[in-house]
Amino acid sequence: MVNQQDPRVLRTRQLIREAFRELLQSKGFDSITINDIAQKATINRATFYAHYLDKYALLEEITEQAFREMIPEEVMDALEFTDEICDQLILLTHRYLIDFHQKCRMDSKSMATIVDEKIKEMLKQTIVSILLKRDNFYREDRYHAEIISAMTGSAIYGAALHWLTVGKMDQTDSLLNIVRPYVMNGLELYRN
Q1: Which residue range or ranges hold the HTH tetR-type domain (predicted)?
Q2: What is the pLDDT along the chain (192 residues), one digit of tens a residue?
C-alpha cells in the first residue's frame, strides 16, 4: 500500500493530475490513454496504476478536489440553510461549470456523466451536513435529510448547467432570482 502522506507520493499524484488536466485541454477525454497521462507526467504506467485505478477515478478526484476548494468556509461552517448559503451554492456551482467547460473539452458523455454525478453528490453532502447540524427535524431522520439534500443539490446543479447551456453565463442575478425561491420553498415544505 502506498503511503499517501509521503512527499514523493504527493508529488507524483500532483504530476499525474497536472498531466491529465493539460491533456483534457487538448484532447477529448475518450481519446486520452493511461499511456498519454504517464508520458506527460514523466512516469511509467505501473506508477500511474499504483495511484489510480483508471482515468475515471482520476477524473472523479480532480472534479471533487476542484469543487471542494471552491466551497467557502462560510458554507462549510453554516448552521442552517439560509438564502445566503443557497446563493453561494448556486453561484459556486455555476462558476465551477463555467471554469470546467472553459478548461476541458466536454465532448464525452462518460466524462459529463462523471462530472455531473460527482458535483451533485458533493452538493448533497454539503447540504445534508448543514441540515443535520441544526435542524431537529432532519437530525431525527438522516435518510429524509439525504433525500431532501439530493433533490436540492440536483435542482441547483440542473439550473446552473442549463444556465450555462443557454448562454446566460453573465446573468447570475437572474439565475439566483429563479433558483433560490424554488429551493428555499421546497425546503420549507418539508420542514412544515
Answers
A1: 10-70
A2: 556 677 888 899 999 999 999 998 888 888 999 999 999 999 999 999 999 999 999 999 999 999 999 999 999 999 989 999 999 999 999 999 988 887 776 667 788 889 999 999 999 999 999 988 875 555 667 888 899 999 999 999 999 999 988 877 678 999 999 999 999 998 887 765
C-alpha cell at 114: 462523471
**Is the separation of the CB atoms in 107 and 174 below 8 Å?**
no
Q: What is the Cα–Cα distance from 113 to 105, expressed in whole angstroms?
A: 14
The Cα 47–Cα 36 span in angstroms is: 13
Helix (H) or strand (E) holding 83: helix 83-103
**N-to-C CA span, the chain:** 50
Dist. CA 26–CA 104, nearest whole Å: 8
